[in-house]
Amino acid sequence: MDHPIPSQRILPTLNRDGTRRLVRPKLFSGSYHKRRRIVGWSLIALFVGLPFVRLGGKPAVLLDIPHRQFTLLGHTFLPTDGVLLAFLMLSVFVGVFLVTALLGRAWCGWGCPQTVYLEFVFRPIEQWLEGSRGQQLKLDKEGPNAKRVLKWGIFGLLSVAVANVFLAYFVRPSELLHWMTHSPFEHPTGALVVLGASALVFFDFAYFREQMCTVICPYARLQSALLDRRSLIVGYDRKRGEPRGGGRAAGGDCIDCKACVIACPTGIDIRDGLQLECVSCTQCVDACNSVMQRLKKPEGLIRYASQDWFATGKQGSWLRPRVLVYSVLVLGLLTGLLLLGREHSKPAEVTVLRGIGAPFVARAADIQNQLRIKVANRGEVEQVFAIAIEDAGDSQLIAPENPLHVAAGGQATTTVFVLSPRSAFSAGTRPIEVVVSSPDGFTARTPYHLLGP
Q1: How far is residue 314's CA from residue 256's CA, in Å, rounded to a whole number?
Q2: Widest CA span in the chain
Q3: CA–CA separation, 128 and 142 (whole Å)
Q4: How far is Cα 110 from Cα 186, in angstroms, rounded to an integer?
């Protein structure tokens, strides 16, 4: 069955017949591009170097999923830190909401690795090898030549490098170095992970490109909920620019040169208004400003402003309900994170649980309580933890594994028994204190109630 062809393009990356429209933007090196280049290369340096920085003897960032340990800024989060991780993630998400409400999609255009690597690493290499936008479009029609094949080879090597840096956030650098310098047959799983990550990076930056932002990333589709009419966006001043094509004599400054369109890395026309494909990269701003300079007209026909400013000429107060709500939420979450962080900053964490099965066992001469003691070692070296009880009177501790050895960054659980005379219980309980200590000075005291008749 034949489907009707639409009268106009539905998406900027699709032709009317549904085929892929390759976007080959033209670079206009203006003031915004120079600032973005400084920010971009600073972020690349941070991204490459951060996994290898150590704080307090620990990696600055290590998301060790197999061992269920997340290290951020030298602090290790264990599976027992679920609440702390939840506060951290919520703080990040609400922080993104706050930044978006104030600055629009500034993250997408200035800080997202997808944009930074594409616009300041992969695309410059492509333009250096293949030439201008017109030459690239010609290659798209005629097919690849030696320069394009060379470009793909360089992209392949870059993809392996970027993938390895990315994996350094999930694998300890020493282990990753072993993967890189030894035969893949010695570590087939690691080799497959590196190969898969490299292939995904190559597919993204060599082919998929802007579709990652417009098709896959959900952030663009949240714009309608996160932005309001006072949020900062990249927009076109219709009052000044329309009608197009005739210059000031016809009433508008836009000469319809389409420089903003051919500069856009997602292929949109910014003059059509706010669109989910816009990543606020400001390349259209530099393109339009360069034209305005040649025409001896004021810059800023396309610029950063709010929708209210473009419509009424007035910005309005940046302090509005959603900004206040997001700010209060961020402040509350960060305060909770700080308080919980202080509680979880100890070198070890001790949890005392009741044993599995009957709450107690009544024997001929005494009452037996079974306890499970779980110790999580947050340190970088193995520790031994001694287990004792206090305020127990004539109760007796029987611990088959005492002291308890716990590996660095690991946790261990042991079962102990407390034998108490029947006369020690009042109303069926007896309070004691379980004490777990280590040679380095750590001591944890946990109140506990023995059960009895």
Answers
A1: 26
A2: 108
A3: 19
A4: 40
Dihedral angle over CA of 79, 80, 86, 91, nearest 10: -100
Phi and psi at residue 231, to the nearest 5°: -70, 145
How far are the Cα atoms of 102, 106, 233, 423 from residue 320, in angstroms, in the given order? 10, 19, 17, 67
Sheet with 69-72, side-by-side order of all strands = 61-64, 69-72, 75-77
Indicate the helix (H) or strand (E) that contains 135.
helix 133-142
Query: Running DSSP on this structure, what letter comes out for residue 14?
Result: B
Secondary structure of residue 389 in the 3-state scheme? strand
Query: Cβ(289)–Cβ(234) under 8 Å?
Result: no
Q: How far apart are CA 264 and CA 282, in angstroms?
A: 9
Spatial distance between the Cα atoms of 366 and 275, rounded to a whole number of angstroms: 76
Are the C-beta atoms of residues 350 and 373 closer than 8 Å to each other?
yes
Q: How many CB atoms lie within 10 A of CB 31?
A: 12
Q: Kind and range of the H or E element at 69?
A: strand 69-72
- Determine phi and psi for 351, rounding to 5 degrees: -130, 130
Q: Between helices 31-49 and 283-294, what is the axis angle to 10°?
A: 150
Task: Give the separation between CA 213 and CA 279, rounded to whole angstroms.
Answer: 8
Question: Residues 9, 11, 14, 17: is their CA dihedral positive or negative?
Answer: negative
Give the CA radius of gyration of the chain: 31
302 pairs with which residues across the strands?
Answer: 236
Indicate the SS3 state at residue 273.
coil
What pLDDT tens digit does each residue of the chain (453 aa) get?
455 555 555 677 777 777 788 899 999 989 999 999 999 999 999 999 998 888 877 788 888 877 777 888 777 777 767 777 788 889 988 988 898 999 888 899 999 999 999 999 999 999 999 999 999 989 988 888 899 999 999 999 999 999 999 988 988 888 888 887 888 888 888 889 889 999 999 999 999 999 998 888 888 788 778 888 899 999 999 999 988 876 555 678 999 999 999 999 999 999 999 888 899 999 999 999 999 999 999 999 999 999 999 988 887 778 888 899 999 999 998 888 887 776 666 788 888 999 888 888 888 888 999 999 999 887 778 889 999 998 777 888 998 888 899 988 788 899 999 999 888 888 889 999 999 999 888 888 999 999 988
Q: What is the three-state SS of 154-171?
A: HHHHHHHHHHHHHHCCCC
